[in-house]
């Protein structure tokens, strides 16, 4: 029986259909892991478009954003990195989306800063989870101390003036 050699459009590596797991889309054959990764990236790119559509309103330019995303991918940026950069720039830093002119051109300038921010946040979250939270929480709880106290009465008020 002859083996069918195909080329994965995602990673552009050739493989035999009979030897590896694959996903067929129309007349194309993807490695299973490449297809899953491709779908994740597509979902992230769709979320980038949704975010920019909300922020920019009528100024939103899908073609410009798509061309920027493909250019950023060639520069080595990942779709999740682009998304995190936009979240950092607009949600954390609270910058004005009208200056974007319907695109994501700011990404190349703040990508490193945003990745440092998210990495630091993840590191601090990891350190926080590593501490024994229950012991720490217990030490902060107020301690209730019961004492046998007598009822105190108000002292009698002295009359300063005696008028008769």
Written description of the protein model:
- This protein has helices at residues 32-56, 62-75, 79-92, 107-130, 133-140, and strands at residues 5-7, 14-16, 22-25, 28-31.
- It has 164 residues and is mostly helical.
- The chain has one domain.
- A two-stranded antiparallel sheet has the order 1-2. It has a two-stranded antiparallel ribbon with strand order 3-4.
- Helix 1 packs parallel to helix 3 and helix 3 (79-92) packs across helix 4.
- It starts with a strand and ends in a 24-residue tail after the last helix.
- The relative contact order is 0.08.
- The model has no long low-confidence stretch (mean pLDDT 83).
Name the helicity range: 40-55%
Rg on CA atoms, Å: 32 Å
Taking the sheet with the most strands, its summary is:
2 strands, antiparallel
Spatial order of strands in the largest sheet: 1-2
Query: How confident is the prediction overall: mean pLDDT?
Result: 83
Number of DSSP helical runs: 5
- Low-confidence blocks of residues: none
Strand fraction: 5-15%
Question: What's the number of extended β-strand segments?
Answer: 4
Structural class: mainly alpha
């Amino acid at each position: 029986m002859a083996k069918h050699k195909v080329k994965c459009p995602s990673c552009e590596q050739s493989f035999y259909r009979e030897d590896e797991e694959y996903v067929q889309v129309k007349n194309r054959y993807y490695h299973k892991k490449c297809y899953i990764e491709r779908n994740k990236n597509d979902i992230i790119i769709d979320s980038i478009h949704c975010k920019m559509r909300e922020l920019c309103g009528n100024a939103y330019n899908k073609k410009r954003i798509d061309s920027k995303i493909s250019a950023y991918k060639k520069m080595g940026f990942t779709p999740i990195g682009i998304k995190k950069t936009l979240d950092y720039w607009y949600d954390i830093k609270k910058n004005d989306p009208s200056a974007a002119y319907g695109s994501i051109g700011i990404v190349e300038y703040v990508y490193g800063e945003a990745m440092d921010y998210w990495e630091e946040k993840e590191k601090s979250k990891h350190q926080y989870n590593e501490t024994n939270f229950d012991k720490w929480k217990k030490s902060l709880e107020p301690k209730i101390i019961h004492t046998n106290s007598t009822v105190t009465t108000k002292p009698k008020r002295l009359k300063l003036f005696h008028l008769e």
